Amino acid sequence: MKIIVQILLLVLLVLPVNGQTGDDTWKPIFDGNDLEQWRVPKKNIWWSIDNEILWAKSDPDKIGSILWTKKSYTDFMVQMDFKFGEGVVDTGIYMRGDNPRNVQVQIGISGSLKKDMTASPYVPTLGYPAEASGVDALLDHKGWNTIKAMTIGNTYTVWLNGVEVMNYELENANLKGPIGLQLHPGNEMTVQFRNIMVNEL
Question: Which residues form the domain of 119?
Fold first, then answer.
C-alpha cells in the first residue's frame, strides 16, 4: 500500500498544474535562435532577437507590424512568456489569422477602452465581447508573465500565469489560419516574448 501511495504522489508531481501542460506535443515556434517559422516583414525594423528574446519595438512613424507564422493552424494551444517594456503596450495574439471572424487575445492596454485588457478576446466586428477575470491580481507589470491560449472550434480559452481567466465562444469563427503577434500602430512601445510554443490538438 505504501508503494502505491508513493507512486501516486510521483504521478501528481509531474502532472500539469493550473492549466500548464508539459507533454511532448508542444513544439517551439520561437526558441530564441531565429524566426525561421515566421514570415518576417520586408524591410523589418520592428522585430529583433537579443539574448534569445524576441523584441517588438515601434518604428518612428508608429505604423506597427504583425509577425505571422508561416504555418496555418486549426485547433491548437499557443503558449509564450511576455514582458511589458516601454510606452503604452498594446499587443496580442492573433488566433487563426486576421479577419472579422477571428479572435485576437489582447496583451496590454486596449486602444479603444484605454485600460488593460490582457487575456481578453478582441473581435473586429464586436470589440471586446468578454473580459478576462482576475487579471489584476495575476499580472506582473514589471516581470515575465506566461499566457496560454487555446482554440477548439468556436471556443477560446486563456490561462494567465497558470490560472484560467477567460472562456469565450465566437459564433461562426474562422477555423483555420496562422498565429500572429501584433505590434499595434499608433503607439510608441516595446514588448518582449520568449518560449513561444504550439500544441496542435
Answer: 19-200
Q: What is the mean pLDDT of residues 15-21?
A: 42
Which helix H or strand E contains 3, and what residues bound it?
helix 2-14
Order of strands across the sheet with 177-183? 38-39, 65-73, 177-183, 90-95, 103-108, 121-122
| Side chain identity at residue 103, one-letter code | V
Instruction: Specify the number of domains making up the chain.
Output: 1
| pTM of the complete model | 0.87
Examine residue 109 and state whether it is found in any structural domain, yes or no. Answer: yes
Question: Is the residue at 4 inside a domain?
Answer: no
Residue 120 and residue 123: Cα distance in Å, rounded?
Answer: 10
Q: What is the largest CA-CA distance in the chain?
A: 68
Could you give the angle at the alpha carbon of 178 between the alpha carbons of 174 and 184, nearest 5°? Answer: 95
Q: Where are the alpha helices (DSSP H) in 47-158?
A: 135-138
**pLDDT confidence of residue 23:** 52
Name the nearest CA neighbour of 161 among 129, 134, 180.
Answer: 134
- Domain with residue 86: its CATH number is 2.60.120.560
Q: Is residue 10 part of a domain?
A: no
Does residue 25 belong to any structural domain of this protein? yes
79 touches 19 (CB < 8 A): no
